[in-house]
Design goal:
The complex is a heterodimer of chains A (about 375) and B (about 50). Chain A has about 375 residues and is an all-beta fold. Chain A has three domains: about 30 residues, no CATH class; about 220 residues, Sandwich (Jelly Rolls); about 90 residues, Elongation Factor Tu (Ef-tu), domain 3 (Beta Barrel), CATH 2.40.30. Chain A is built from one helix and 25 strands. Chain B is about 20% helix and about 35% strand. In chain B, a hairpin with a 5-residue loop joins strand 1 and strand 2. Classes of the chains: A mainly beta (about 375), B alpha+beta (about 50). The interface between A and B is medium-sized, with 26 and 19 residues.
């Protein structure tokens, strides 16, 4: 170990590039290049802090979003598990949450088409700086923390949805019940660019189990046209016993061949990024009007413009009032003029309010879904 | 399964379809993945239920 004591570092032309004052403060005279200083992480909600849909879902046997935002589940015939936003995290890393899968019904004998993956889909317009499909295609590095009772080989994929291309890498969980940090670097792909739009262009997928339809080939460790049997070769069957579990947190995908420290973003920033894709919560719909005496109508502008015009679902609860009486909201009658920024929402309610009056609603739980 | 939705005046709303499994109202936006799934379902030869 040695120490370099200098006050500045200069270019050979004598220009200061870096100076250090007596208090140890460092100044750079130009721009620090190599990796971005901010917004490095292509993954949204990598620290699993946002869970708008709920913090626990049990009896899961199919695909979908369940707890932590932006992390989708795809698969069939993988037994049954409970997914939760967990507070088990690696010590000293600044995380508060992880996503947990806990098996409640095992599938020890996977069928050919069995598989289960956790994935996050990324919009093409957010991937243009990877320069995919050019001679300057960027290398990217994935880092994440993982903990499981089941050691062995696990597989991650980058799946180019636009061009049906794939690269897969293996990693090993070495110790039971122990948080481990994994770092995996993927070469850039000089073939086939991502679409520059708001569609689904790239999936980062974490394999959890795979039958022969997705594992009987040779692991595809370089970019090439996607071949299903080459996706999850060697993947352990995490579904093979009740009480098997796995936790993930600190998922980061960034340009370069080095994993930088996890980019912790403020809660409000991460929530807004998630809400481009899904908003679920209690709403007091503004500008309500008692349409025809039987249903409140309201215009609603989303707090964050969404990726696309969202599907809208009534979840639960809510009270409407015409100033004379309260009425329980019971559902969604219709939606109108739905765009990526706003919608007109017609609710149903118990009883008949005074038609034509101004109304208000409160605590109506709705979901606006524009996921990829 | 899907069901057509009527406007308040009783005519068919041609901008939205209702998914009966969760009563989601799906706008006819080509970037909406639920709408994409609906189009695939129709392309397979299925037809939505008439509105009530």
């Amino acid at each position: 170990m040695s120490t370099l004591k200098v006050n500045s570092i200069q270019h050979s032309n004598g220009t200061d590039a870096l100076t250090i004052d007596s208090a140890g403060n460092t100044s750079f005279s130009g721009v620090v290049t190599g990796t971005p200083l901010g917004n490095r992480n292509l993954i949204i909600n990598g620290d699993m802090k946002i869970a708008q849909r709920g913090t626990s879902a049990s009896g899961i046997t199919g695909s979908g979003y369940y707890t932590c935002d932006r992390f989708d589940i795809g698969g069939v015939s993988f037994g049954t598990f409970t997914q939760s936003q967990d507070t088990d995290v690696p010590t000293g890393q600044g995380f508060a949450n992880s996503i947990k899968f806990l098996w409640t019904t095992a599938n020890a004998s996977l069928s050919n088409n069995s598989f289960l993956q956790m994935h996050q889909s990324i919009e093409g317009q957010n991937l243009q700086y990877l320069k995919k499909g050019t001679a300057n295609a960027e290398t990217v590095t994935l880092s994440f923390w993982v903990k499981s009772n089941k050691t062995g080989t696990y597989i991650v994929n980058l799946w180019d949805i636009d061009n049906t291309r794939l690269i897969a890498k293996a990693y090993t969980i070495n110790a039971v019940d122990t948080w481990e940090k994994k770092t995996i670097t993927f070469a850039g792909d000089t073939v086939a660019s991502f679409d520059n739009d708001n569609g689904r262009s790239l999936d980062l997928t974490f394999g959890l189990c795979a039958g022969t339809d997705n594992s009987s080939g040779t692991l595809q460790t370089t970019w090439a046209s996607a071949v299903a049997i080459n996706r999850y070769v060697g993947q352990v069957n995490l579904a093979d016993a009740v009480n098997n579990y796995i936790n993930f947190t600190g998922v980061q995908l960034e340009v370069g061949d080095t994993a930088t420290p996890f980019e912790h973003r403020p809660y409000d920033m991460e929530l807004a990024r998630c809400q481009r894709y899904c908003v679920q919560g209690d709403f007091a719909l503004a500008g309500c009007y008692g349409g025809g005496g039987a249903y409140p109508i309201a215009g609603h502008t989303y707090s964050t413009p969404m990726r696309a015009a969202p599907s809208i679902t009534y979840i639960s609860g809510g009270t409407a009032s015409d100033g004379i009486a309260d009425y329980a909201v019971t559902g969604l009658l219709a939606t109108q003029a739905v765009t990526s920024r706003s919608a007109r929402i017609l609710l149903t309610q118990t009883g008949t309010s005074a038609g034509g009056r101004g109304m208000d609603t409160k605590a109506v739980t709705l979901k606006f879904d524009a996921e990829l | 399964m899907y069901k057509k939705v009527n406007n308040l005046n009783g005519t068919e709303d041609t901008t939205v379809i209702k998914r009966t499994s969760d009563n989601a109202f799906i706008p006819f936006d080509e970037a909406n993945t639920d709408y994409q799934e609906y189009l695939e379902w129709v392309a397979e030869g299925n037809t939505p239920e008439e509105a009530e």
